[in-house]
Amino acid sequence: KKGCFFIATEGASSARVSFVDYSFFVPTDSGGKEVTLVGTFKRQALDAAQAAHYAEDVGEPAPAGNDPVMEYAIVATSVIIPKG
Fold first, then answer.
1. Is 17:8 a contact under the CB 8 Å cutoff?
2. Alpha-carbon distance 39 to 8, whole Å?
């Protein structure tokens, strides 16, 4: 199984990680592992529809209201995940 994005966390901070041109994926059992990644980091505004879609993807309720939601995102060009 593979995933087309993951949420990277460091303490209380998090970023949605996607992959350049969907050219690779990560195993869905990668949760809890320390990863090394290279990519472009940005802070972006999500409209209500995007925020609702992303919340659904991770099993959370959609944010209330129509105000933009800010998120950190990384478009990765490579990800190293240790085996085991």
1. yes
2. 13
Tokens of 60: 């959370």
Q: Which two tokens stand for residue 25?
A: 């994926």
Predicted pLDDT of residue 2 = 62
SS in 3 state form for the chain?
CEECEEEEEECCEEEEEEEHHHCCCEECCCCCCCCEEEEEEEEEEECHHHHHHHHHHCCCCCCCCCCCEEEEEEEEEEEECCCC
Location of structure tokens 């939601």: 69
CB 26 within 8 A of CB 2: yes
**Chain-centre distance of CA 41, in angstroms?**
11
Average pLDDT across the chain, whole number:
88
The reported pLDDT for the residue numbered 5 is 85
